Fold these 2 entries.
Entry 1:
Amino acid sequence: MSRPTLPAPDAAWLDSLSHAALEAAAAERVEAAWRLAREVYPGLPRPALWFDLRGQSAGQAHFGRGGLRLNRVLLAENRRAFFVEIIPHEMAHWLVRHLDEGHRVRPHGHEWRTVMRDLYGLAPRVTHGFDTRRASPAPYRYTCDCREHHLGARRHARIAAGQRYYCRHCRQWLRPVAEASV
Ligand SMILES: [Zn+2]
Ligand SMILES: [Zn+2]
């Protein structure tokens, strides 16, 4: 494992930032990650940046909209992790997708992992351990055979008490998901 190529920000400085200053600093971090990615692919377009992602996901590269989305609640609560890992993670998606004209590679496949390791010097993790209770009104994640379901506290408690719910699309029982994706 090589060392991270984006220097880690000072934790005390990060914690001192107002929400507006934090988002401005995150935009600068995205810019720095983008400049590194352009060393691999000089034609890589600059992604737009939004802080409008909600729920359990920390970040998302949104190719239809042409940019990256970050979860503002999780960013404020997990500042260092966003700067060290989440922003490079999403920029790696942005880079791999633009290198892959046929859109054939898997989102967290070999190409993405290689960018994380070799360009950003990071372990290619695909889940985060953030506490998502404040970020999501329906914080309990379940899965079936076709999609993810977000349940509120009441249905989650009913399941814990023995009730079962099934997915109306694939008709499989919902089962809990352990970790939130990035
Ligand atoms: Zn289903
Ligand atoms: Zn990802």
Entry 2:
Amino acid sequence: MSFPLQAILEPIRSWHRTETPDVLVIGAGIAGLSLALCLPEHLRVIVVTKGSLGESNTWYAQGGLAAAVGADDDPDLHFKDTIAAGAGLCDKNAVRALVDGGPAAVQWLIKHGTRFDIENESLALGKEAAHSRNRVLHAGGDATGAEIERSLVAQLRIRPTVTILDHTTALDLVVDPDGTCCGAIVVENDSSETVFIAASITVLANGGAGQLWAVTSNPPGATGDGIAMALRAGVAVADLEFTQFHPTVLSGSGIDAFLITEAIRGEGAYLLSANGERFMIGNDELAELAPRDIVARAIQRQVTLDGGRPVSLDLRHLDPEMVLRRFPTIAERLKHHGLALTTDLIPVAPAAHYIMGGIVADCQGRTSMDGLMAVGEVSCTGVHGANRLASNSLLEGLVFGLGAAEWIGSTHNPTRASLPYSERPPVDADTTTLTSIRSTRSDIQQLMSAHVAVVRDEAGLQATIDDLKVIGERVILM
Ligand SMILES: Cc1cc2nc3c(=O)[nH]c(=O)nc-3n(C[C@H](O)[C@H](O)[C@H](O)COP(=O)(O)OP(=O)(O)OC[C@H]3O[C@@H](n4cnc5c(N)ncnc54)[C@H](O)[C@@H]3O)c2cc1C
């Protein structure tokens, strides 16, 4: 089962220029949508998203959402696996809140229309790297994120107190002289008109930053806007050096990096060197199911040893019927590149995938700035440490999105932000400048991929800092 993106993309409501919401949510992935849906209905909410509604990293998530819902599982086991994958750097209290909140959050999703795959009348549970149990819920085989977006968007459409502004990009936070966030400046993409939306609570839920690298699994919108907005406003951020490189995206010249989910290795696929050897066996006792950072580094080493020839995924020994039922989207995408998932070796390489660091936030989404909250991939709650356990990201957006909504609902009395919308002058945005800034993106991506990727050294990092300064000065002069 897969869901065409077009089906949920039409603009939903008109632009209400004079509205001042209680809560402004920036971003419409799993974190922003679940938060907006869980807010009490007496609060007026605006959700801003820079592309078509539905376009997000969430949409592309394949493998699934991890939660301890199986008969042989419990949150303590999920806790241990998360801590082990995080290389000793997880915040244990945050991990506890994440794994304990998982089962109820899954029920919330199901209640809101998400149709997870069912097997033998129970939720089907897949296995992924570094999980000691089968605990990854999936939908449409490998279309989990699309199903979650579909269901949450459908619910949001019928919520009368929520206004959705799509094709609208948040540019900057607005901070009162007393240091409280009182809303954001947004630009309507088509008209380039900038508007101040005043809100007593602003939530950054605008996702990751994979597009800082030349090779990434992330869609074009993942440009780290939320972290940049927070930095410019002086909000605390942390752990930005911890970027996860997914070990297996399709590789080859002229090919768009397309993620091949880890669940494929969970079902038994091998990683082979160019000489046909299962090189992960010598690298880690979990072999192909070692944590992502270990697999990504091992692949990088192997490619160097093999003179640049790529490693491959091999599914030829698996039941083809199971493979095609479980991974229909991937099989279809590979066909366009002339590859058959069940019979060909699939060339793969690591790609920038997920940013563990971000805006420092607690499990209710509260940041270092009053009036500003952060949830989902844009935040850094400490649950992932130095390396995220597979499928814990959708879970984080969901559990802490719901937690943030509950906190707002329990503490927030609707009051307008300090200045009503009409008293704030619109900000001039020079669209020529915006276009020029976009053209520097490729320079940044090349630099990051060359020196700030799977393996880094001091000289490369220093060279990147120097070059980024030059790019920064160029941007300021535009
Ligand atoms: C190919 C792929 C596969 C993945 N598979 C899995 C998986 O199987 N399991 C798992 O747990 N995780 C997976 N992940 C990671 C996971 O999908 C993301 O970490 C998670 O969906 C992030 O959710 P989010 O709501 O925080 O952000 P997103 O889903 O990225 O949503 C961000 C939203 O913010 C909007 N936005 C961004 N900037 C602005 C701006 N300036 N103004 C207005 N709006 C803005 C975007 O348009 C989007 O609506 C995968 C990621 C990718 C790319």
